[in-house]
Amino acid sequence: MMEELSEHIKLLKKREDRVLIGVDGLSRSGKTTFTKGLSSLLFQEGLRVATIHLDDYITPEEIRYGSSFPEWKEYYELQWDVSLLREELFKPMRKENVLKLPRYDQQYATIYKERLVIEAADIVIVEGVFLQRPSWRGFFDQVIYLDVPRIERFRRENIETQKKIDKFKRRYWKAEEHYLETSQPALKADLVIDLSCCNCTGKER
């Protein structure tokens, strides 16, 4: 499956422009691991790949917690600055060689301006949740959606995190349900991969 995907991406690369790939999926669906494997395979095929992890660019806690929004909407609307990332990441990443992005420093809980050099990249892979929201979906040449049932994704959390199930119900799962209902990621993705049972289905856009 991964080899077939690599061949498909290589065909996309025959054009002159940089190829933009999105790896979408809900929390704990395996996006980071999958992206690492895909990037490594493409590199072995002689392609230069830049990988961007959307969770590196979340907003400070004072923005995404304690607002007037319901908790699920805080997560969906405020966890990332949707408009800013559209302008500073998604819009310029095809042509620009240097991206200036608001990176979140986990240790100090602050934002600093990161200078991300992607000049040498033939392919840029962005991995993150909610990638197919309307503000972002149109920038990708190809979107891969990793489909894993909620119960399995929750089992991948550590024991301490699983004890916070009420927070998942109020915040994360309601936001996921909103995304699934309004953006229909499995239907709109170019390729859907079921990582819970190693099944893979693909379709042309």
Task: List the keywords.
PRK/URK, Rossmann fold, Phosphoribulokinase/uridine kinase domain-containing protein, two-stranded antiparallel sheet, ATP binding, alpha/beta, kinase activity, disordered C terminus, 10 helices, 6-stranded mixed beta sheet, 40% helix, globular
Brief sketch in words of this structure:
This protein has one domain: P-loop containing nucleotide triphosphate hydrolases (Rossmann fold), CATH 3.40.50.300.
What does this structure look like?
The chain has 205 residues and is an alpha/beta fold. The chain has a single domain (2-202), classed as 3-Layer(aba) Sandwich (Rossmann fold), CATH 3.40.50. The chain has ten helices and eight strands. The chain has helices at residues 2-12, 31-44, 61-64, 71-78, 82-90, 134-137, 150-155, 159-162, 165-183, 185-188; strands at 19-25, 49-53, 98-105, 110-117, 123-128, 142-147, 191-194, 199-202. Strands 2-5-1-6-7-8 form a six-stranded mixed beta sheet. A two-stranded antiparallel sheet has the order 3-4. A hairpin with a 4-residue loop joins strand 3 (98-105) and strand 4 (110-117). Helix 1 (2-12) packs across helix 2 (31-44) and helix 4 packs across helix 9 (165-183). 26% of the residues are buried.
